[in-house]
Write a structure and sequence with these properties.
heterodimer, A: mainly alpha, two-stranded antiparallel ribbon, 2 helices, 2 strands, B: mainly alpha, Sodium/glucose cotransporter, globular
């Protein structure tokens, strides 16, 4: 395997690892909300109505909206950081 | 003038068709330069709003109308699994991977998915392999997107437009605006289609609420009285087991949906990386918002026609419309169904035509022709692809049904290759031979673990989605073979990494 870091140590960090605080928060928020929908749903798997809708459905769509809103917020912070680095 | 109810439906469908042809062939959709990179994709790039609605419409297939309602009818709230992918795909795949595809596509002027992969792994037969592999699973997907809306149109006009004629109408419209305007026609029509289907689904949900006296709680109580299993997992037919829930939304949908060829074409056509990132952050709101009213529609159709099952469940909503909706309203919904199917069909047609032209014709048959020649050839491929799709849709081929089922598994096996190119790591882990071996091994396992084959014999606790099993084998095989085979050209790897570092890792 080619170890690129031997050639260019300054620019060969993995892109899988979040670099800034906002990127770490984005990833963390993504994982938490994902787990709430993915695993948390089983904890509320009851035929109960919330606002006239099934609890499972409200749970999944509610966390979906929270998931989107949080990542949108962190994503805009990341974009602002990028713009600052570019000098825009 | 309109003595029969189906006259209204036809009138509205004609109005919809005129609108789409006008939008798809208008001045704004004309190709700026006679160049492949400004026909199959948009050279200067689309801005946020147009591409947002283009991607939004392109992502919602015929499954949105009427498929999602049929899913609710059959499996109740197990449908909520779709909420998982409608958020995971934008925030995970479009934001993280799609923006990187945009970066490389703009920097190195890629046109097809294979362009990006061969730039990293090396040219040769690998390009043909990737193109054949991808095409073979996309044609059944095109067929799936024409069958549902054609059925809806035929039923909505009380079969005065026969099924074959509905197929021909959709196919002809797609041929006209894709050959006329390439991806510009695809994207502008998809903008109109995205708006139409959004309005249609929400209007249908409010109409359904009105049908059941305007009360969500009354609908809930009625469903609970009829079958409480509709309101919890795993659903009345036991579909949403923990194993299914754990793997289908992510491995069966989310991971592959964004790396379909149509996804690449959209990402390549973004004005810049920030445009794709913004779409990733926001398009989930649209995707989710279309599935929220689907619950009301699906449950209402269930309470009216609980006896429908199997493929009949998909006809529950069209039947509800036919028997209870005013004719003009049914026409709007039928046109919404056409919009859902055509918005994906046209994007797939353009992407597949690009692959046939660039990855086969220009790479292996006629290498040094002009761009004008290649665009003409691309237009011929559009007609060819749509003809095959329409023909396949007129036959009840078991092979097509099987292929639709394995499409997700096939595209998902490309994921290690896409990640290897777009997400640089400390080392180069994959080689061309490794990726090829991994794809073939993963595909074999994904096919074998389908429920109809060996998957049905697996212990219940490990009956995961076939795409998941494919990746479980694909990645180790790819890594192992890569250890002993020739690495990608270090200059190409460094060039691609440099482009990604510049955009995404400036602080590194």
């Amino acid at each position: 395997m080619t170890n690129i870091s031997a050639d260019k140590p300054a620019s060969n960090s993995s892109h899988l690892i979040p670099q800034t605080l906002w990127e770490k928060l984005y990833l963390g928020w993504f994982l938490i909300c994902f787990l709430m929908v993915w695993i948390g749903t089983w904890a509320v798997n009851k035929p109960i109505a919330v606002l006239g809708m099934p609890l499972v459905y409200v749970w999944c769509s509610g966390w979906g909206i929270v998931w989107l809103a949080g990542c949108w917020s962190f994503g805009t912070k990341i974009a602002a950081d990028d713009a600052a680095i570019k000098g825009e | 003038m309109f003595s029969e109810s189906w006259h209204y439906t036809i009138a509205i469908v004609i109005a919809y068709s005129m609108l789409i042809l006008w939008v798809g062939t208008g001045r704004w959709a004309k190709v700026g330069k006679v160049r492949m990179d400004d026909y199959f994709k948009v050279g200067p790039g689309f801005g946020f709003l147009v591409l947002y609605l283009g991607i939004a419409g392109g992502f919602h297939t015929a499954f949105a109308i009427p498929g999602s309602m049929g899913f609710y009818h059959s499996h109740g709230v197990a449908f909520a699994a779709n909420i998982l992918w409608t958020v995971f795909t934008p925030l995970g795949m479009i934001y993280f991977i799609g923006s990187r595809i945009t970066c490389l596509g703009r920097k190195f002027n890629y046109i097809t998915p294979a362009d990006m992969l061969v730039d990293y792994f090396g040219e040769g037969k690998f390009r043909a392999f990737i193109a054949i592999y991808t095409l073979s699973c996309c044609i059944p997907l095109m067929t799936a997107n024409i069958v549902g809306p054609a059925t809806l149109l035929s039923a909505g006009t009380e079969n005065h437009i026969p099924y074959w004629a509905a197929l021909a109408i959709m196919g002809t419209m797609v041929v006209i605006y894709v050959t006329s305007s390439g991806i510009r026609g695809v994207t502008w029509t998809t903008v109109a289609q995205a708006v139409w289907m959004f309005v249609a689904v929400w209007a249908a949900a409010f109409w359904c609420l009105d049908l059941i006296d305007g009360d969500l709680m009354a609908l809930f109580t009625r469903v609970q009285d009829m079958d409480p299993a509709m309101l919890t997992l795993p659903g009345p037919q036991g579909l949403a087991t923990p194993q299914w829930w754990a793997t289908w939304p992510v491995f069966g949908i989310a991971l592959y949906w964004a790396i379909l060829p149509r996804g690449f074409m959209f990402f390549y056509s973004a004005k810049d990386v920030q445009t794709t990132k913004k779409i990733g952050l926001t398009v989930g709101f649209y995707l989710m918002a279309l599935y929220i009213p689907a619950m009301v529609i699906g449950f209402t159709a269930y309470t009216y026609f609980p006896e429908l099952s199997g493929t009949g469940a998909d006809s529950s909503f069209p039947r509800l419309l036919a028997e209870y909706a005013p004719a003009w309203f049914a026409g709007i919904i039928v046109a919404g169904g056409l919009a859902a199917g055509m918005s994906s069909l046209d994007a797939d047609t353009n992407a597949n035509s690009a692959m046939l032209t660039k990855d086969f014709y220009a790479s292996f048959i006629k290498k040094d022709a002009t761009d004008r020649h290649y665009i003409t050839v691309g237009r011929v491929f559009v007609i060819f692809l749509v003809a095959i799709t329409v023909l396949a849709a007129t036959r009840n081929w078991g092979l097509v049904v099987l292929m639709i089922g394995v499409t997700a598994s096939m595209i998902t096996q490309l994921l290690p290759a896409v990640i290897a190119v777009t997400v640089p790591m400390k080392r180069v882990w994959f080689t061309k031979a490794g990726i090829t071996s991994g794809i073939l091994a993963g595909l074999t396992v994904a096919l074998a673990t389908r429920p109809a084959l060996l998957g049905g014999m697996l212990p219940a606790g490990i009956r995961f989605d076939p795409s998941f099993w494919g990746l479980v084998v694909n990645i180790p095989v790819a890594l192992l073979v890569s250890r002993f085979t020739k690495e990608p050209d270090p200059a190409s790897v460094a060039r691609i990494r440099g482009a990604l570092n510049e955009e995404f890792h400036r602080g590194a």
